[in-house]
Amino acid sequence: MSLIRTASERGITTLTLDSPDNRNALSAALVAELSDALAACGKDPAVRAVVLAHTGTTFSAGADLKAPPSPYTFVDLLRQIVELPKPVVGVVDGHARAGGLGLLGACDVVLASEGADFALTEVRIGVAPAVIALTLLPKLEPRSAARYFLTGERFGTAEARVMGLVTGPLADLGQVLDGLRRASPQGLRATKRLVTARVLETFERDAEELVQLSATLFASTEAREGMTAFLERRDPAWRL
């Protein structure tokens, strides 16, 4: 059963994360399918832009703790979105958590419904938002990033727009897609290279260090306790 649903209309290919039973968690299988689908979009001259959407109430709950991809594989996926020669528009109509925010950070435009909410929950299971910092920190307002990276608090669409995670309301999707359809393929390719240059510099400089940090943290005693507590729906031992 496919975890990515694909549909195309007038030059726009929509890739829909379709694993609602686990809230579109980033399993090794889902990441591999999404990577393959993006590669196909990148090679297809009929594709002007890509929309990254979701089924269910959650865009993505972050890493699948039972069947996660390797940190290197996830880094490759994030970089693939950033480097794709077609604009990628992320669409959120519900919840987004942890690694799901990394996917949104890699997108060129992010549109969210008024009722959407977001959280960087890594600190609550004993790890850090290390790998997704590659796509998020170059784009987010630093004070807001520090608060939500450190506390794991939930925040809404209004704050997500102020901090730079969300571009605009979901109601703007038609207008954004119309603009992309009016743009030339060459113009989009060249312009995307301009707007992603800073993010790609971060990958070149920091990716290996952050992958190693992520691997070290996930293998730690605290992370094992945090992940076990999460799966058992209880507070971790350090909760005050």
Automatic annotation (TrEMBL):
Q: What is this protein called?
A: Enoyl-CoA hydratase
Q: Which family does it belong to?
A: Belongs to the enoyl-CoA hydratase/isomerase family.
Q: Name one Pfam family in it.
A: ECH_1
Matching PANTHER family: ENOYL-COA HYDRATASE (PTHR42964), POLYKETIDE BIOSYNTHESIS ENOYL-COA HYDRATASE PKSH-RELATED (PTHR42964:SF1)
Q: What is the lineage of its organism?
A: Bacteria, Bacillati, Actinomycetota, Actinomycetes, Kitasatosporales
The Gene Ontology terms for molecular function here are: catalytic activity
